[in-house]
Design a protein that fits this description.
There is one protein chain. By secondary structure, the protein is an alpha+beta fold. It has 3 domains: 135 residues, no CATH class; 72 residues, Helix Hairpins, CATH 1.10.287; 153 residues, Heat Shock Protein 90. It is 67% helix and 14% strand. It has 10 helices and 8 strands. The strands form 2 sheets. It has a 5-stranded mixed beta sheet, covered by helices on one side. Strand 6 and strand 7 form a beta hairpin. The longest helix has 96 residues. It is elongated and about 165 Å long. The two termini are 36 Å apart.
Length: 380
């Protein structure tokens, strides 16, 4: 989730809570005023004030010396009578005053809420960025550790593979001197020929192994070109059928799409696909025809998902978790160095994409995700 989206959600939530609270209070003002006025203004109060006015008139007549005081009190009571005789008018006046003060307080608190939301947004955004950066650093660190761990294991395997043929070569070469001094000429000739044969075979095997590892370390930088992947896959299927005649291919993509343009290095991306197809063919030699299902799907993130699946042997959980590790192989062939899928992953990453092994109950399925440059749709 992007930081901007988090900021919008948080800011909207704070404002919504603030506005809803004050809006609810505004709707209750009528009821609050009605209850308050009903408590203070009633018919009995008005009757008591009227009786008090009559009493003041009588007192003024009986006590003429204090006529002014009684008259003043009479007018005070008369002013109060206005309030108690017209409760609706008083309610409008009070409501108007309440609303004025309420709006002033509401606007003030709304501004304070907005400022608080902005401050909190900034703090949450900064905290989120720090957390995200920290997670990214940890992820990169773990990836680096895993990368070096894989290469350490690969180096150990390579050292073992190199050491194995050196032992018999050393023994046979050392034995040549003894054979030359003690054996008959014909026997020495046979020993020399046998030694030569073994040395040549082992050195040839070492050369092949070193050349295979050098392919991984000398992968060229991709030269990305805009390429229609639909046409690319049709051509890949055509050439693959010629290379592996005991295979069949299905290709599925949205029918409303004319072409999907992506930036790829056609040769290197073809190498990725061929490696995946070759692995499936090698893993299922007894299946004929071996069925492949290829598909294209546009995800919601403007990423193109290219899936290559084959119906055949499945992989165990251990095999699935180690499938992209350098030097790991599911085949028992001595010539297999476990670099094929590592090379595929490296090439896909060079294309700003990623590859993953996806669940598939009938065999093995890989999905390559790469950014889309352009999509052309079929015009109706």
């Amino acid at each position: 989730m992007k930081v901007n989206r988090i900021n919008v959600y948080l800011f909207s939530t704070i404002l919504a809570l603030s506005v809803s609270s004050f809006f609810s209070a505004y709707l209750l003002i009528d009821e609050i005023l009605e209850s308050s006025i009903s408590l203070g203004v009633n018919q009995k109060t008005s009757q008591l004030l009227s009786q008090y006015q009559r009493d003041l008139k009588r007192l003024r007549e009986l006590d003429s010396q204090n006529e002014k005081a009684y008259k003043s009190r009479f007018y005070q009571v008369q002013d109060a009578m206005v309030v108690f005789q017209n409760p609706k008018q008083i309610k409008r006046v009070i409501k108007s005053s309440y609303i004025s003060y309420f709006l002033i307080i509401f606007v003030s608190l709304l501004i304070m809420s907005a400022l608080a939301a902005m401050i909190l947004n900034r703090k949450v955004s900064n905290a989120y960025k720090r957390l995200l950066d920290n997670d990214i650093r940890k992820s990169k660190r773990l990836h680096e550790l895993e990368y070096f761990d894989n290469w350490q294991q690969t180096a150990a395997n390579l050292a073992h593979e190199i050491k194995n043929p050196l032992t018999p070569i050393e023994m046979m070469v050392t034995n040549l001197e003894y054979s030359y001094l003690n054996a008959q000429p014909n026997d020495f000739k046979n020993t020399l020929q046998t030694t030569r044969k073994v040395v040549v075979e082992e050195v040839t095997r070492l050369k092949k192994m070193v050349n295979y590892f050098s392919q991984f370390s000398t992968l060229p930088t991709p030269k990305l070109l805009p390429t229609d992947l639909i046409t690319f896959i049709h051509e890949l299927i055509g050439s693959s059928k010629l290379a592996w005649q005991h295979t069949s291919f299905g290709f599925d993509y949205p029918t409303n799409i004319k072409d999907i343009v992506v930036n790829i290095d056609p040769q290197m991306f073809r190498q990725c696909c061929i490696n995946l197809l070759q692995n499936a063919v090698d893993a299922n030699p007894e299946i004929s025809p071996l069925k492949f299902e290829l598909s294209l799907k546009i995800s919601s993130k403007q990423q193109l998902e290219f899936t290559i699946a084959n119906i055949g042997k499945t992989l165990s959980r251990v095999q699935q978790s180690n499938i992209f590790k350098i030097g790991y192989s599911t085949h028992k062939d001595n010539q297999n160095r476990g670099l094929g899928l590592a090379i595929v992953k490296k090439i896909v990453m060079e294309h700003d994409g990623y590859i993953e092994l996806v669940p598939y109950s009938e065999g093995v399925s890989f999905t390559i995700s790469i950014p889309i440059k352009k999509v052309h749709y079929v015009q109706n």
